[in-house]
Design goal:
Structural class: alpha+beta
CATH topology: Arc Repressor Mutant, subunit A
CATH superfamily: Winged helix-like DNA-binding domain superfamily/Winged helix DNA-binding domain
Order of helices and strands: HHHEE
CATH class: Mainly Alpha
Helix content: 40-55%
Distance between the termini: 12 Å
CATH architecture: Orthogonal Bundle
């Protein structure tokens, strides 16, 4: 099983398990957004708005990074001006994967 949570605070036991479960749930929700919208591009802030409004943007970015590392998402070259006036890259579903649902 891959780790979704980066244990930079040296958690252990149940606290670490809870944080790992939460991180994996976030990734599942984000991947579902991309599977349900396979032709769309989303910035991290759009993902946050559409899936996990109360999650910190850093958690969204962590999940996007993990899903990209797993080959499920692709970071595109498309940039959108977003929150705070900064440009953000967009992510898209990796069409080349045969079975996206294996994360679940």
């Amino acid at each position: 099983m891959k780790n979704s949570y980066y244990n930079t605070t040296n958690e252990s036991g149940q606290e670490l398990n809870d944080r790992e479960d939460k991180a994996q749930t976030q990734e599942q929700k984000i991947l579902t957004l991309f599977i349900e919208n396979p032709t769309k591009l989303f910035t991290p802030f759009e993902v946050q708005h559409l899936t996990l409004r109360n999650a910190p943007i850093t958690s969204i970015r962590r999940a996007l990074t993990n899903l990209t590392s797993d080959g499920r998402l692709i970071k595109s070259e498309v940039l959108k001006q977003e929150k705070y006036g900064a440009k953000n890259f967009c992510w898209k579903l990796n069409y080349n994967l045969n079975d996206q649902k294996t994360l679940f």
